[in-house]
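Batch queue: ligand-bound targets. Current item pairs a single chain with pyridoxal-5'-phosphate. No template structures supplied; prediction is de novo from sequence plus SMILES. Inputs echoed for audit trail.
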Amino acid sequence: MPEKRKKFKGASTTAVHAGELTPSQGEVVTPIYQTSTFYFPTSDPSTWEGKVPDGSYIYTRWGNPTIRATEDKLSELEGSERGLLFSSGMAAITSAILSFVGKGDHLISIEDIYGGTYSFIRSELPRLGVETTFVDSTDPSKLAEAIKPNTKLIYLESPTNPLLKIVDIRRAAKVAREHGIKSLIDSTFATPINQKPIDMGVDLVAHSCTKYLNGHSDLIAGVVLGSQADIESIYKKRILYGGSMDPLAAFLLFRGLKTLALRMERHNRNGAQIAKFLESHPGVEGVHYPGLDSHPQHALAREQMTGFGGMVSFEVRGGRKAAERALRAFQVIKMATSLGGVDSLASMPLNSSHSSLTPQERQRLGIKDQLVRLSLGIEDAEDLIQDLDHALS
Ligand SMILES: Cc1ncc(COP(=O)(O)O)c(C=O)c1O
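Prediction returned. Tokens below.
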């Protein structure tokens, strides 16, 4: 049997090989440990003290070999010491936030974040005695200005959902470190293929694995990655809040991850081509894509990203009704929420990802009623362009 290797040079090799369990029956594919419980590590009950030795498992809410293998693959890809999987992106994000803030603490968050996270911070954290200051995502000086003596965490997301604004990750991480504050970034839109926040000084990275990491729109999952010490704190919350992953979902995610680097090459290519096409289309008022020269933060995006992904948002000329007509006319692109899968999807943030925001909140963030969010899959760009052209004409 081959020796288990830890580090690989390229992201594609890492995606395929990292995290594999040592074969027990000569198997080539890391198996599903579809079991909720495990034999106690000692056969004599009188010697069992309730402690789980390193590398052993006791109960799947605490840990499971298939889940651990997937966490190891993810942390190799992200360049973190450790990763921790959850049953959803929201479980990962909320458990991580609640590991670092509690009653009497202060959180700083950029204001352009995924609608679910925004609602959690706005509605749930005040009930728990946590105060939050929302700041402009494009101005890092605002982060430093918002710091209070009780600030415990800076929450970031980049590129942002749905307007693909870019946070200056290095500067934001520096502000956090200089003040001894933890930083956490949702890097779902970028994936570890296009962006490495830990290398830029961020403490913790979260992803909704439901999206690009799994890539096939057939499971819900989330991960937090960071130092061993930080992940141990979050691990305690995972056990208690119960947002653990199912081994079958971990197995599917493990398989999906093997093609991550390959899929991202196509997503990046389709994103670039289709953003350019939309920019020149008379039925389109504005396009948001960090890879476009016209994106106000294109230079920053080039500094901190190696690819710009398959998420493109645009405003349809003619308002909300015209945008709804375009959505109904798609023949290849599917009208559905979510993102990051091999199939292209289109949705309107107004009634999907950002429906929990008030119209005033959406207006303040620049999310117009006629905004369409595209998640470009891995189909041929020509087919997607034809579909868009037909729907917009
Ligand atoms: C950027 C981002 N973060 C987090 C989430 C939440 O992930 P999940 O749906 O897996 O809980 C989403 C979901 O759309 C998202 O787009």
